[in-house]
Amino acid sequence: MRTPAKTILLALLALATLGAGRVTFAPPTQAAPLPVALVELDGSVNPGSADYLVRAIQTAEREGVAAVVIRLDTPGGMLESTREIVKAQLAARVPVVVWVGPSGARAGSAGVFITVAAHLAAMAPATNIGAAHPVQAGGGEEPDETMAEKVTNDTAAWAQGIAAQRGRNGEWVADAVRESVSVHAEQALELGVIDLVSPDLPSLLEAIDGREVTTAAGTVVLRTSGAQIAPLRPSARERLLDGLGNPNVAFLLLGLGVLGLLAELYHPGTLFPGVLGAVSLALGLLATRMLPVDTAAIVLIFVGAVLIAAEFFVTSWGLLAVAGAICLGVGGFLLIDPSEPGFLVDRDFGVQWGLVLPIVLVVAALAAIVVWKVAVSRTGRQLTGAQGLIGEVGVAAEEIGPEKGKAFLHGELWEARSTGSIAKDVQVKVERVEGLVVTVVAVD
């Protein structure tokens, strides 16, 4: 028979054993999820942004992140740069997620292809996607309509191929190319163009957690819930090229170039305005190579600069300057042509009037100053040369008469004549200049 002490001892041993079992079989702590690389495409698609996105995908593959998230807000851009980005997405060995956001953003024209080529595509509420029609300006012997139809069919086939590989609505994508259709986020989800609608990045990472995608390396299950977002920044070269791909920056550089050269003409030898103008003009011309620029607009801008510069040498009382300012403004407004070959951009992609007007007004003000200076010089008394001595007051250095005499004028000793006799040290005023002889009268 067990004593109470033995019973209590056995009970304590059983409790200790049970406690030890609970500690031993506790589930292990889960490892933190891999970070998510964030890439931002905010602006036109150009060589700078293409290099940035391709490099970011390659870097993400080397670093072994959970996924690459591209935050997209673009009106479109160069077709060749779009193809480079899409090729990098299709060949990516890491999941690529495109999120059109935040609210108010758009995936216009070239942005359609980048969104459709993602492993997972998402949009924020109040965003839109579409209008990918490549309105081309034809050339060569074939009519423009024939060339435009060829380019449109080629682009539509490319878009359908991308959609088929990603399991998306290829028919709608083709309509976006051929008919320039555009839909908002909820419609895009219903049509099977995107996979989900998410208001922000944290909710996006929660929503795609556990989803299965097929990359170039095989099937991957996303583990993004609570993942750290690691932004991948563009390099200095990529930022420069991307900045030059902005129509407003391109026109600003051209405008600064014109202003700098005009300032150098107004004050020759200043050097700094001329150098600044030449560098700005060179960068502006480089920027036009990455934009759908209308050649006629470039010609208008340079004609305007020539007309304004001509005002410095030809007195037109402001007519040349006004004509030049008008040419500069119209050229800036028409600088971007969405129908240029090799580009996929929205119709509203261009230079803003809020930038064109200040530059035109500054150029006009500079020309107005020149016109005013010329008018003053024409109507005012001449202050240099022999004629500038007329009306000047000096002192008789000796007695001055009709035949001989000398006078101090401006610290110089001049031969002087007078109709009457003027005593030495009397103040005299110049009435006439004949060669090196001045005719003076006594000052009361």
Write the layout of secondary structure elements.
Layout: H1 4-24, E1 36-42, H2 47-63, E2 67-73, E3 76-78, H3 79-90, E4 96-100, E5 106-108, H4 110-116, E6 120-123, E7 128-130, H5 144-166, H6 170-178, E8 182-184, H7 185-190, E9 196-197, H8 201-208, E10 212-215, E11 218-221, E12 229-231, H9 236-244, H10 247-266, H11 272-288, H12 295-310, H13 319-333, E13 343-345, H14 353-379, E14 393-396, E15 406-409, E16 412-417, E17 427-434, E18 437-442
Parallel strand pairs: 1-2, 1-12, 2-4, 4-6, 5-7, 6-9, 16-18
Antiparallel strand pairs: 3-13, 7-8, 10-11, 14-15, 14-17, 15-16, 17-18
Helix pairs in contact: 2-3, 2-9, 3-4, 5-6, 10-11, 10-12, 10-14, 12-13, 13-14
CATH fold group of the largest domain: 2-enoyl-CoA Hydratase, Chain A, domain 1
* CATH architecture tag of the largest domain: Alpha-Beta Complex
Percent of residues in helices comes to: 40-55%
What gyration radius follows from the Cα positions, in whole Å? 39 Å
Strand content: 15-25%
CATH superfamily of the largest domain: 2-enoyl-CoA Hydratase, Chain A, domain 1
Main beta-sheet strand count, sense and barrel state? 6 strands, parallel
Q: How many structural domains does the protein architecture include?
A: 3
| Unreliable stretches | 1-30, 136-143
Number of strands: 18
**Structural class, from secondary structure content?**
alpha/beta
What is the spatial order of strands in the main beta sheet? 9-6-4-2-1-12
How confident overall, as mean pLDDT? 82
First-residue to last-residue Cα separation: 151 Å
By DSSP (H or I, 4+ residues per run), the number of helices equals: 14
The CATH class of the largest domain is Alpha Beta
Based on Cα principal axes, name the global outline: elongated
